[in-house]
Structure formats: C-alpha cells, structure tokens
Amino acid sequence: MKLDYYPLGDTGIQLVFGTEISEETNQKIRMFANELAQHPIDGVVEWVPAYTTLTIYYLPNKISFKALKEKLEALDEQQHGREADAASLVYIIPTYYGGSDLAYVAEHNGLSEEDVISIHANKDYLIYMMGFVPGFPYLGGMPEEIATPRRENPRAEIEPGSVGIAGAQTGVYPLESPGGWQLIGQTPVKLYDPTGERPILLESGHYLRFVPISKEEFLTIKEAIKRGEYEVETEEKKVSVHEVG
Amino acid sequence: MSKPIFKVRKSGLLSTIQDSGRKGYQQYGIVVSGAMDPFSMNVANFLVGNKGDEAVLEITVMGPAFDVLDDAVIAICGGDLSPKVNGEKAPMWKSFTVKEGDRLEFGQPLSGARSYISVAGGYEVPLVMGSKSTYLKAGIGGIEGRALVKGDVLQTSGKIKGISGRALHPDEVPSYKKELTVRVVLGPHQHAFTEEGIDTFLSTPYEVTPQSDRMGFRLKGEKVEHATSADIISEAIPLGGIQVPANGDPIILMSDRQTTGGYSRIATVISSDIPYLAQAMPGCTIHFREVTVEQAQEVFETNDRFLRTLEKVSVR
After folding, report:
1. Which residue of A166, A188, A238, B168 has the fewest CB atoms within a 10 Å radius of its CB?
2. To the nearest whole angstrom, how far is the Cα of B97 from the nearest Cα of chain A?
3. pTM recorded for the entire structure
4. Chosen from B293, B295, B306 to mutate, greatest number of chain A CBs within 10 A
5. Domain boundary among B157, B175, B193
6. Residue A45 half-sphere exposure, CB side, CA atoms within 13 Å?
7. What is the domain extent for residue B124?
8. What tens digit of pLDDT does each residue of B157-215 get?
C-alpha cells in the first residue's frame, strides 16, 4: 500500500500509514522512523509517530515540500517487502498494586482484586504513541475483562507513577496532574525526569510490562532511584509484521 | 561573568523567558513552547548582537516593571506596550543602553499583544531539554518553570557587550492591525468537512475571543460544518494547525499546544504569518486565505533571506 502525504503548512508533512489502529501499522511507522533516525535527511528537525501517522517537521530553507516528499517516497519504496527485523524493547515497570480504586475495578467487573492484578500484570502492552502530557504512553492491548469507566469525580491531584484504567485503556501518569482514571497501582519508576539525563523513559513502538511488587519492594526501589542506583530493566522482543498482522 | 541585570518590581500579566522552543522531544510528548512571535524574538536578539534564537523575555499586554541593576544593552521588539525608561518613552526596534538605577516599565498596550525584551548576552537560566523556554503547565524552563514574579532577579551571561543604537529599518517594522488576513494551507482533514464548511472558513471573518492564550486562539464566527465526525484518531498537531471541534468553532494551535490531538483540522497557518497572528488581541478579526505549500515556502524563503542578512550584519 502506498502512503498518503499531506502538507501541514510549510514546515510539516504528514505520512498516513493506515486508517485503523493496529499493531501492524504501528510497526510500519516505527520502522520508518528508525530509518529516518539512521539515515538523517538534511532539514528534518524531528518527527512524531502516532497511531496511524508519522508527522515530520522540517526547515523549508533546507528542503522543500516537494523534495522531501520525493525522498520519503524513495524511503518507503525501500521498505517494501521488508519485515520488521528491529527488535522491540519491553520496559519492565515494577508496580505495587495497592491503588485506591483497585477494589472498585474488581467489583465493577465481578472479579477479585487478585484477578484484576493477574489480568493487568505480566502482559506486554504496545506503546502506540506518546503525548497528552510529557512522557505519557498510549498503551494498547488491555483485556476488556478489566475495563472500567472513568471516575465520576476526577481527582484534583494524582501522584506521578500512578497506574490507572480509563475505559478500555490503561496508562501511567508521568507527572502530578488532575485526572479521572481508576487508580489500581503505583510504580516507583520515573517516566518523566525533566532535568535527568534521560528526560523521558519510554518510546513509542516499544512495549511496557507491569510486574507486581510488594510495598517493601516499592519503597526499596524508590530509595534506590533517589540515590541514582536503579535502572529500569528492558527485555528484547522479536516482532514481525506478519506475525502481529 | 554572569551579572544580575533586572529586578522585578511588577510582574505584568504574563512575563516568561522564551527562546525558539524545545525541539526534538515532541515524540515523547514534550510541548515545544517558545516565543509566540519568533520574528520579533529574532530581531530583538540581532539588534543587541545575540544569535536569533537566544532567550528573550516575552511580556504580554500589561507589561512588567524592572529596576535595572547593571548597565546593559537591550532591545524591545514586537507589540507596542508603551515601554518607558525613568518615565521617558523608550525606543522600540532599536538597541539602547540601560544604566544601573534606571527604571524600565511598561504602560498602555498601544498595538499588538506581546513584546520581547532581549539583552546582550542573553538571560541566564538553565537549559531544560536543550531550551530555556518556559512551559508553565509542566513547570519547566525559564525561571523555575514559572512566570516572573515580583522580586525575581534576572541574570545575563555578560558574554557579549552589545552595541546600542542599532535599529531595524522603519520600512521593515511590522504594523499590527485590528483586522488581519492570515494565509493557510488547507488540510490535512479536508474530507472531514463539507464543501460549504470549507467555503465558510475561507470567506467569512472570525473574531479572536478572550479564551485565547499561548496554547491556542479560540475563534468565534460562522460555524464550520463537518461532513463526518469532528474526531480523528489522535495524531501530531503542528504550530498553526486549525482544529475544529464538533461545535464548529475553529481553534488555532499556538506555541504551548499539546504535541498530539484528536480533532479534525481544516488547515494550517503558514509559518510566516504566525508572528502577526501572535500579536492579535481578543476582539481582532481574522480572514483566512488559501495558498499552496509552494507559495508558502516562497514566502518563507524571502523572510528567511531577510533574517539571514540581518544576522550577518549583527552577529559576530
């Protein structure tokens, strides 16, 4: 399938890879973005992967829309028939499942709290895109069995690291903010650290896995992070476009 | 080398440190921010001998007041917010020297909405993800991630002495009008609108409402009609993108826009017209005019050539 290209004013170009949210489309976008990172095009400033699109921002005094579009078309040609060979990473996110809405999520779905945890944890969620607030991952693949509507009264303040459910979506709050998600747990890991060496932990196209930990482990890891002695574990994951299609 | 230059006596409505914004982090959800009117930022910097994208102070409608703590070369560009030094009218679009003990303040907004104060050597604040720009919602950049408050002391690096008395040619000074035409490239979601909807958008005037800020300008006028749902699958949103929620009222996305959004967009304002748009106060009238991406890039070339010439004579 050929990509569609749209100008976004005079400094942006949008590449459309599909019309529906799917892991296959996401992998194609990730491959294309990898290609851009490995073979930089002069004048390209940055790009933003999303569910079905890749948006590229550029400097028109370095490259025109027409010239950039031609380069991108050639890049797309090269990609044809290629399988996703780049391994994805799975970020291991230790999570203490003691959120104040855990009981509600269980009750709403006619499950025990243990059931909710075992359904939610140890599963690889695809990070479709980042956005909404700095470092927030849009995750796909949460089982419907634990889907729960947002809270009727959103909280004014949610702690960073809170793991929640909103409808059929799950996510982690990277920074303190108000919100209506049902909170089921908390990770000590920092997803957003503006002055750190790595301001944002996660990256779209990769995966995230919540691994249950005890309250003691939560506190131990939190202390280790404070001392700068904790590193988030990652695992490689082979994904092929054909497999996930 | 760094030296304190301004002490804030009055904060003004919204005074923040801004540069050309945080680049390269949008894919992680980091908002770009940066000066709303990059032309004025560039010129203010060039006039004092800085690089164009050095951090400046962006002040809004009701400007601040400062005690000058040390001699420095500064320039004020953008909207005319009645700058005064020791009660006397201060020059705009021209570098000049302020002396220790002077009082720099602003009065009535006469034209435009934002003004930019540059200082030779730039303002010294930490770089956060490669930029000095303040982004209030995440509390990063500038002075502790916030707007100026009374008592703040601004520092300059003191690395450049600067030359006073350099001015932009009067023919090149932009004038900000109550009614302006803004050029747009249509798309990318034209299909989400009816033909009438697009026609309405291009042929009727829109008013900037008071619900407009650094994040976006909310407009009011004839409703823009959708052909399909107003919602799209979330995707990146560019500077100047014009989204239309289900209520039919367009919103132009500005410097502090989120990186991604889920409303259909009818068009994008061309980058050369962003500086004029940034100076539009609530109550101003906007007309949209369609251009092609090729035409937009020709305008960009012309403006860019002008800025590069200015840079060549200013920055050493």
Report:
1. A238
2. 34
3. 0.93
4. B293
5. B175
6. 19
7. 3-175
8. 878 888 899 999 999 999 999 999 999 999 999 999 999 999 999 999 999 999 999 99
